[in-house]
Amino acid sequence: MVFIMKRKEIILGVLGIVVIVVIAFFIASAIHNHNVDSISNEKKDKVEFEINGKEVNFKTYRVDQSFFLNVPDTFVMLDEETLKTKYNYNNRPELVFMSNDDLKHIFISTTNETMTDDSLEEYLSNRIAGLVNMTVLDSGVYQKYKKTFASLVASDANTYYNLRFFTLEDKLVTIEFNIPINEYQEWEDVVNEVMDSICFSEDDIKRG
Length: 208
What we know:
Layout: H1 2-33, E1 36-40, E2 50-51, E3 54-55, E4 58-63, E5 67-72, E6 76-77, H2 80-86, E7 95-98, E8 105-114, H3 120-129, E9 135-144, E10 147-155, E11 159-168, E12 171-180, H4 184-196, H5 202-207
Antiparallel strand pairs: 1-4, 2-3, 4-5, 6-7, 7-8, 8-12, 9-10, 10-11, 11-12
């Protein structure tokens, strides 16, 4: 009888662990699925952006319930498995939006590095000092929506890079739009629209 009771306790214990693991899995999946929400896909009456005769429209995404970003609606958000395969390194971005031709990318990443608004200017200077074989086209620190941003625009022989840095909960967030240098001129306004769209509330979207 004691043996049977112990066996029952073991089975119940194992079943309890399995239930907890399954629940944890679904909770984690739900959280992951809500990290990025598309909140709009509205077409404006006036065509503001056109590339090679094609209209460019945007989706507004809410990222980690923390900030908003406009992304061309033809860009695809890569899933976790694709990220692991395509960017197989430790510091890979958490989010990547990619054009259909895989030549234009928007990277979003958050580091564990502690960063405050007051430190952004020094961070930007150090980042510029560390660039190799690259030309800095523009850089600076500015205020918007009561937040401090650092911007860096640079290029190498093949690629144009437009980056924004800001902080959330004392962690550094980096958003990068890169594009082949030979496509930069026709895409410049779209790139600027994406980078300038960063904001932190739906009221900011309306003001923007």
